[in-house]
Amino acid sequence: MGDFEDLKAAIESEFPGWLVWRSDAGRWYATRSTDLTDAELRAGYAMTVAADDSDGLRELLREQESG
After folding, report:
1. pTM summary value
2. 31: left (phi over 0), alpha (psi -120 to 50) or beta
3. 14-39 tens-digit pLDDT
4. Which of 20, 34, 36, 50 is the most exposed place for a label (fewest CB within 10 A)?
């Protein structure tokens, strides 16, 4: 499971409600597929997170889930 499409599918399966993509520069992004409430935004939840690799992205998504 080394190519981007496999990793993307695995992350999106592990974290429903997030859409994953990778920039031309190779940076990994995930954005929520639904809007956050004002309270969630004030609590520090992000609409989009970015990391250098797929493992870093997973870590950020775990943090978003745990609040």
Report:
1. 0.90
2. beta
3. 999 999 999 999 999 999 999 999 99
4. 34
Q: Is the dihedral of CA 2, 26, 21, 37 positive or negative?
A: positive
Residue 23 burial by CB count (10 A; 0-12/13-18/19+): exposed, middle or buried?
exposed
Q: Are 4 and 15 in contact (CB under 8 A)?
A: no
User: Tokens 């997030």, residue?
Assistant: 18
Reduced 3-state DSSP string for the chain: CCCHHHHHHHHHHHCCCEEEEECCCCCEEEEECCCCCHHHHHCCCCCEEEECCHHHHHHHHHHHHHC
